[in-house]
Amino acid sequence: MNKDVATLLSRHTEALALFTDRVHAVRDGQWDDPTPCSEWSVRDLVNHLTAEQLWVPDLVTDGATIEDIGDAYEGDVLGEHPKRSWDAAARAARKAFSDEGAMEGTVQLSYGETPTTAYCSQMISDAVVHTWDLSRAIGAEERLPDALVAFTLGEVGPYASELSKSGLFAPPIEPPPGDDPQTRLLAMMGRRA
């Protein structure tokens, strides 16, 4: 395994562990609380990330396409035990990306064939930003690890201005003067720290 892939897998593990920590910090009465993602409750947010993880083994290990999977992961994937559902999905995603040779291939995403390394990078960035969302929603520590912030800035920076056109992301906002990297990242993703 080359150094770049090893670093990417390490960042992926860190991002999943960070989100896992926040999922396990959700108290029973917080699942319906609002998040910075205006349409999502805490449960909706965790459900979204869990569904994303469920896609990974199908796309990476099995070589499935979006059409093959269809609507298998739409709706509620958390069931009665949201924390356990997240844990299982995160474990399966981590295993799929770290399996021998997995990062040398490609996956079929909605916009076409994509290197698995690029897909993994997108998944890391999504987990990092949504960790902040979940942290804000449940009153947990909002400071993100510097290495994950730097990674995510590098990943989304080149296309951040295009994300809001998809309708899935808020438009970027102007960061305050003297901002730090995390504040800049959040502003890029339409969030006020």
Verbal overview:
This protein has 193 residues and is mainly alpha-helical. It has a single domain (3-188), classed as Four Helix Bundle (Hemerythrin (Met), subunit A) (Up-down Bundle), CATH 1.20.120.450. It contains eight helices and two strands. The protein has a two-stranded antiparallel sheet. A hairpin with a 2-residue loop joins strand 1 (106-109) and strand 2 (112-115). Helix 1 packs antiparallel against helix 4 (82-98) and helix 1 (3-25) runs parallel beside helix 5 (116-138).
Give descriptors for this structure:
Four Helix Bundle (Hemerythrin (Met), subunit A), 4% strand, mainly alpha, 193 residues, single chain
Short structural summary:
This protein is mainly alpha-helical. 57% of the residues lie in helices and 4% in strands. Helix 6 packs parallel to helix 8 (181-188).
SSE order and pairing:
Elements: H1 3-25, H2 42-61, H3 66-69, H4 82-98, E1 106-109, E2 112-115, H5 116-138, H6 146-156, H7 160-163, H8 181-188
